Amino acid sequence: MKKIYLILLLVLVSFASCELGGGFLDEDPKGYLFPENFYNNEEELKMANNALYSHWVDALNRPYESMEIKYASADDILGTGNQRQCYNEIEINLENSVGIDADISKGWERCYDVINIANSIVLNHRRAEGKVTEETLNRYAAQAHFIRAYMYFWLVRFYNNIPLIETAFQPDDNKTVRCSKASEVYDLIVRDLKFAEEYLPIDWKDFDNTLRTGGAITKGAAKSTLSKVYLQMAGFPINGGNEYYALARDKAKEVIDNAGTYGYELRNHFYQVWDPYWKPYSFATDEVIIWTAQSLINDEYSVRAPNPCRPIEFGGWESMIAEKGFYERFPEGERKEYTFVTDFYKGGEHYNYMDLKCQHPAYRKMWADNLTEGWEWETRNEPNSKWRTNMEASANWYSTRSTIIMRYADILLTYAEAKARTDGPDALAYKCLNDVRNRAFEGVGAIGASLNDLSTDDFIDAVVWERAYEFAGFEHSSRWFDLQRLELVEKANTEWRNETEDKYKLVRPYSKKDYFLPIPSNELILNPGLADNNAEFN
Known about the structure:
The chain is mainly alpha-helical. Helices cover 41% and strands 6% of the residues. It is built from 18 helices and 10 strands. It has helices spanning 42-61, 85-91, 98-124, 134-159, 182-199, 209-213, 219-234, 242-257, 259-262, 324-329, 334-339, 386-389, 408-423, 427-441, 456-470, 479-485, 489-492, 521-526, and strands at residues 20-21, 24-25, 77-78, 288-292, 321-322, 340-341, 343-346, 349-352, 362-363, 403-407. A hairpin with a 2-residue loop joins β1 and β2 (24-25). It is globular.
């Protein structure tokens, strides 16, 4: 596999003088470091760990050149094709074009780069045995196990059957790499996360501050991710059913029961999740479970910055707009008002979304940027509020704002769904669902959006749609993964769409093979055995 080397990519890092700024390296590499002469002390473990996080951020936050292009096959977003034609191509179900293949190839390579670094740490961290404590060794190993698990969880949902690499991989001259079954990949993910939940700390306040400020994952993050993995395994294509719904239920409940210990709670209002001035650990308890640091030093692109969802007329790249049927179904309240924008202001002029090239509501929730003066949500109804008047403010693909990967709201909804699917909703399941619904409507403490006394099927349906609304757009808790595991992709692209333009119509019916991406062509040249990673769905 291209760009996966035994030479450690962790040596973006310079030697012991390297320190993290906001979680990232500030200096250029001074040389390559090899496993046979590395991992001998805590300083070297720290360097490896720093590089692991840096590459993990790069793999997760790219706006294009990523498998996330597949999100355009869901029902919450559209890829207009106005800027990047391949987004529209994959949405309407065409065969992969050169543009699509090039994008997913780069995303694939970054993910396996991360896995390779994680593998090296897992395999070699005990070289420092006797020089650091057992707790320290396990702490570094646990972070590598977690990030490897997350990368495989990311990949397996996009590709299904993929290479399962647990060693420091070298370019394969013999072309012997093969795809492992998705079930085998999930087995490794679960093992890794179980190791991580055992050895990760509850928080990092007593440890190295660079880890604390750099987005280091915790015991609660491992448990939360494991609950999401079990939920995914319950559905397609693993089809684990009730056994895995029960595991998801119990693991999510562990997180909820210990939310005070782990420091989790919903923010009072939905818009506060997107506060550009938020800093990690600025609250004693918070909604954020997993986040990654951002830095302008390395020009890290992110789709979770303002420009990707801005219309072209406002200097944006229009990577996503709202599908009209989804927008129309979206429940009224603060969350809808903050998530979307339909009325635009520029140069003192007012425009409806139909006046723009995209002719769809835009996603607004990621516009707020701490590089501009575009926040002011609280004063949005005042005549001179920058929320309305500063729409054309300069912004870009970058942001110093930390990127949220997982939120507590997702675990509340995971428990609610999994509990209902195993033995029906209980009082806690209703509380979890209603807490998210009411926060979305008017804020924590409201009761006007509460649901009660639903049938089990109606309760489950309400939870699945609530997750769609709560995480709409390019959030990591993607609507696409729910549609995939619940086998709703076909319905989402037919019954639930409200699009009349030909460019948004499917060119052929969906099949189960279309639920996944093909492995990039350049990887197939290097390893022909990777061909047809979804042969069982032909």
